[in-house]
Every structure is written in C-alpha cells, then in structure tokens.
Specification:
Radius of gyration: 26 Å
CATH architecture of the largest domain: Alpha-Beta Barrel
Strand content: 25-35%
Distance between the termini: 51 Å
Number of domains: 3
Strand order of the largest sheet: 4-5-6-7-8-9-10-11
CATH topology of the largest domain: TIM Barrel
Helix content: 10-25%
Number of helices: 11
Shape: globular
CATH class of the largest domain: Alpha Beta
CATH superfamily of the largest domain: Glycosidases
Structural class: alpha+beta
Length: 603
C-alpha cells in the first residue's frame, strides 16, 4: 500500500496524472452523535446475514434482496473457528471467502459492517471461538489470559490482511468493525478490550470500531470502549438510548440488533416474531433518525456441526436451521414481513429514489422418496484407539467436533448404576454390543442409567458420545465435549479405556466400508442414491428417523432429531447435481432406514 501511494505521488509530480484524475478518497467517521459519510451525516440502515451460513453461490441473490428492501448496509459476523480450524491453518476458500463476500456486497451497492469477534455468539458453536483453544486444560477465554490473547492477536492480524484494501478509505465498502460482542453480559476486563483495540491498530484498521451490548448500565459500562461507537442489542426507545448517553463518550449510539425473528432450540416450538411486534420498533427508530441493523435479515443454515447451544436451567442445543423467522427465509425467499419492511423503508429513502424490485425466488424442487440399500456400522469402522487411564474430553484427543467412542472392559462390578460425570452431550450406551439406553444432557443433570446384570457376566462397555454444539452465550462457554471427568459403576471409577475419535469428516466418510445388509446394532451409516434431471433447493424430510446427521454428495447438511421441531434439512441446489446424487445418513438409534423425500419448504 505504501508503495502504491508513493507511485501515485510521483506520477502526479511528473504530470502523468492530474489531481482531478485521482479517485476521490471516501471517508466514514464518528462525530459526536453522528456517523459521517464523506463528511455528511449518514444513517446506517443495515440487515444482517452471515456469509458463512449461506452457500457462496447465493450471496449475490440474498444481498440483492437486502438492497431491494431499502437497506444500505449489510452486517456479517466472521466465525474464527471456521477460518482457522487448526492453529495456524487458515481456510478462506468457498463459503469462508470474506473478501469475496465484501466485494459482492460492494458490487450490489451496499456498505459493509464486519463483526469478527473474536467472540461472536450468534448461536454458533463456541460462539465462533476455535475448539482447539480448549486443548489447554486451564485456559480462560474473553479475558487477558496471555495464551488466549496470543491466539486473538494472530487472528486479528490475519483478518487485517484481508480487510486492508476493502476499507472505505482505500476504495472498499467496509465502514465499521465491531470489537468483541456483548462483552458486558460476560465480563469486565477492560484491559482485554483495549488489547483487542491495539491488535486492530497493528492490523492497519482505519475505519471506526464499535461495541454492542444490552441497554443496561452494567453491560454498557463493562462492555463499551472509549472512542468506539456504542451499539445497543436492542435499542428501541428513548430510555435505551439514554442509558448509553449517560456514559458521556461523545460517540454515536445506534441499534446494533433489532429482532424481526428469533432462535429455536431442539425440543421447542419454532420461534416466531409477528410483523406487528417489531415493526413499531423499526418505525420508532426511523422517525427518530436512529441507525439500526436487523438481526437477522436472512439467517441461513448451521451446516455440519456448526450449531451452538445455550444454557438456562439446562443445556439447550440449537437446531440446524437458522431460518430465524427472518424476513428472508432459510431458502432466501421473502416472507410477508419482508414486504412490510420494504414498504416502510420506501418512505425513508433519499428524495426521488425508488426501490428496485427484488429478484425472483430461486427454483425449488421436490425429490421422490429415496431408499437405502447399503449400511456401515460405526463399530466396524473405528479408527485406531488411544489408550487412556480415564476418559478425557474430545478436545484432549485433538478432536474438534463430531462423535467419540469410549470403550472399557468391566472388572469387579458388572451391572448396576452407571454414572457419567459429566456427559456432553448425548450418548448411547452398549454392553457387549447390546444397546442399554441413552443419556441426554438436555434432560437436566441426570447422567446415568441402569446396566442390568447378565449371564454370562457383562464384559465390554461402549459409550458413544455426540457433541451437539458448544455453549455460545453466558458464563459456561468452556464447554468441552465427550466425557469431561469420569465414569463410575456403583460408585466404582472405571479405568483403562480405549478411545476412538470420530470427527465424521470427509476423510472418515471416504473410508467407510458399506455392505448390502442391515446393521446388527444401532449406530450405523446408510447410503442411497437418487437421480435428478434438474437441480433446485429442497428440504430432505427426516421424520422417519431418530437422531443423526445427513450428507448429500459429501456436503454435511447438519443434525436432525426426532425431538423436533425441525424435521427437514435444507439442501441447496449447489450441493446437488444433475444425474446421480448420493445421500448418507448416520443414525444413532435406527436399524431399518426409512425412505427420505425432498420437499420445497421447511414445514
């Protein structure tokens, strides 16, 4: 960049360029209560979508619809754990290509707000923090722990390389960057926030920073940062904005999250937010000249193992769909609330500006019922074991996601009360290959079951554990997976374990040995094939299955569970191909597979 500026100055001095030929430098800055774009007051009217939750092929479609709704800015989280799955190993390809997403938004005529965390929340596994941080047994996160800070610094400096030329002052659309996220609801380490600010300065950030917190005194005091704009999650009244003004920071205050929808956990009804509930709040913000961002404008999907969890009175994992009852549904189709928002925003556009028509919905298809004629037992496809005196959490074996199998031989007690302390998150328990039952963290702190005595005596105990999503909000963030402490049988601690890691990644799936017969015990993969003359978005109906994961042509669509409410998994057209397609289902409990058909809607 320095070389380019020197070269431009030399060209001007030599008369090769006239000052009028140089592109004008655009600016975005904070000035008292106002955001200033090119020196003039500017109202941010943003909609949020997370580029890593949307197939890259659909970014332009979703962003065009966002622009057509009357919004001028898109906000996006950046999920660190997807970009750096292993320390120092970066992945900015495909749906992780942040620069390409930002350039797409610019081409469509949108400004961009980037929300890189390092902690994001967002109903995403571990709030976007990398699982490999948890390999350090005593690490603390979201604070000044030097080991955590060193990882944050590396991440922010790497993002600085990506964002540098995309900032508004260098011809890009990025106008603002969030530092951390809702920190005031978690901690009060001001040194930590200032360290992050310093990392961004070292990374070459030139645009303003902002923070986002609930509109309460303690959250705003602990979570805000002098010199950074103040976001309110949400801010929908004079009282909310007055709470931020009491800090006397001399910076703009805006509604950084206004909720036209809401999240859903497994075992709950679908969350719904009526248009009549949030539209008056949006109208208030517009009438009072406030900047805002709609969270979410388009939710997308928690593909693979990316869904997170909350913890209230119990563990609450999030469903795979991030539909969020947003104005654009999971497949990117406008809901009635989209048009209600558009009609309202049309009245607040610059004089003489007319909103473009949104593009037509993308094709959706139905898929005839697919049968399954091959199976592969997970117990016949185990990787080599790691010998452990006692079971450890998944992260201690270098594993970030998926499933893990713990196996031991029973000595002394051969039956009775089995207790797992603590199980994270769902386990099927087998004794000599027979299913003894399941343990489910979502049902509370009970983590045990009864093992019946047998003749001849029980010999082998298997505990197959599914990691259902790390907690992404609140004080229990350090949510290691698998068996996190010990296993006892009638209060005797069981020792001597063989541990098999099962990340269920592409390499593992390629090695599966399928046979043309049904499995003898639960915990099996099933494979089928189907032909398509043309492709389109579809939802695969899993209502005939129990609990597991689905892959189509190698793409992990995410988890399903008979607990509901989600029964169908979104399969976008880019995951499909004309001709033959392959579907693989891993189910923890099913022995006889049900057909799977594709439908055009989530419900």
């Amino acid at each position: 960049m320095r070389f380019r500026r020197i070269a431009l100055a030399a060209a001007l001095a030599a008369g090769l360029l006239t000052p009028a030929a140089a592109a004008p430098q655009r600016t975005f800055r904070l000035d008292g209560k106002d955001f200033l774009l090119d020196g003039k007051p500017f109202r941010i009217m943003a909609g949020e979508m997370h580029y890593q939750r949307v197939p890259r092929e659909y970014w332009a479609d979703r962003l065009t619809k966002l622009k057509a709704a009357g919004l001028n800015t898109v906000g996006t989280y950046v999920f660190w754990n997807a970009l750096e799955p292993e320390p120092g190993s970066w992945d900015f390809a495909g749906a992780n290509d942040l620069a390409a997403f930002i350039r797409t938004a610019q081409r469509i005529g949108l400004w961009v707000i980037v929300r890189p965390g390092p902690y994001a929340c967002a109903e995403w596994d571990f709030g976007g923090l990398p699982a490999w941080l948890l390999r350090t047994p005593d690490i603390k996160v979201r604070c000044s722990d030097p080991r955590y800070l060193a990882a944050c610094e590396s991440y922010i400096l790497r993002l600085g390389d990506v964002l540098g030329e995309l900032q508004i002052g260098r011809g890009g659309p990025v106008i603002m960057v969030q530092v951390e996220n809702e920190y005031g609801s978690y901690g009060n380490d001001r040194d930590y926030l200032q360290a992050l600010q310093g990392f961004w300065e070292r990374a070459g950030l030139e645009v303003p920073l902002y923070t986002a917190d609930g509109a309460t005194p303690h959250m705003l005091e602990a979570g805000s940062l002098p010199g950074a704009a103040i976001g309110l999650d949400p801010g929908t009244s004079e009282k909310d904005f007055a709470e931020a003004e009491r800090l006397r920071r001399g910076v703009p205050v805006f509604c950084s999250e206004l909720y036209p929808g809401w999240l859903t956990h497994w075992g709950e009804p679908w969350a719904k937010v009526g248009t009549e509930e949030f539209l008056p709040e949006l109208r208030w913000l517009l009438d009072h000249g406030k900047s805002f961002s709609l969270y979410m404008f388009h939710g997308g999907t928690n593909f693979g193992f990316t869904a997170g969890a909350n913890f209230g009175d119990r563990y609450q994992p999030d469903v795979t769909s991030y539909d969020y009852d947003a104005p654009l549904d999971e497949a990117g189709r406008p809901r009635p609330k989209y048009f209600a928002i558009r009609d309202l925003l049309a009245r607040y556009q610059p004089k003489g500006a007319a909103l473009p028509d949104p593009p037509e919905p993308l094709p959706a298809i139905a898929v005839p019922a697919v049968g399954f004629d091959e199976s592969a037992s997970v117990f016949d496809n185990l990787p080599p074991a790691v010998r452990s005196a006692q079971p450890g959490p998944m992260e201690s074996y270098g594993q970030n996601q998926g499933f893990i199998l713990y196996r031991t031989r029973l000595l002394g007690h051969r039956g009775g009360k089995l207790a797992v302390t603590d199980l994270h998150d769902y386990a099927t328990v087998f004794v000599d290959g027979r299913l003894a039952g399941a343990i489910d963290r979502t049902k509370g702190e009970a983590t045990g079951l009864e093992i019946p005595k047998a003749e001849p005596a029980n010999e082998t105990l298997d505990i197959l554990v599914e990691a259902m999503g790390r907690i992404n909000y609140g004080p229990r963030l350090l949510d290691r997976k698998g068996i996190t402490d010990r296993v006892t049988l009638n209060n005797m601690t069981l020792m001597g374990w063989d541990v098999h890691t099962l990340p269920l990644d592409a390499e593992y799936l390629e090695r599966l040995r399928f046979v043309r017969r049904p499995p003898e015990r639960p915990g099996a993969f099933f494979r089928g094939r189907f032909d398509l003359a043309s492709v389109g978005d579809t939802y695969l109906d899993m209502s005939g299955w129990k609990k597991g994961v689905v892959w189509v042509n190698g793409h992990n669509l995410g988890r399903y569970w008979e607990a509901g409410p989600q029964k169908r998994l979104f399969c976008p057209a880019p995951f499909l191909t004309t001709g033959t397609n392959e579907i693989v289902v891993f189910d923890l409990l099913t022995l006889r597979p049900a057909p799977v058909a594709g439908f055009k809607d989530l419900e």
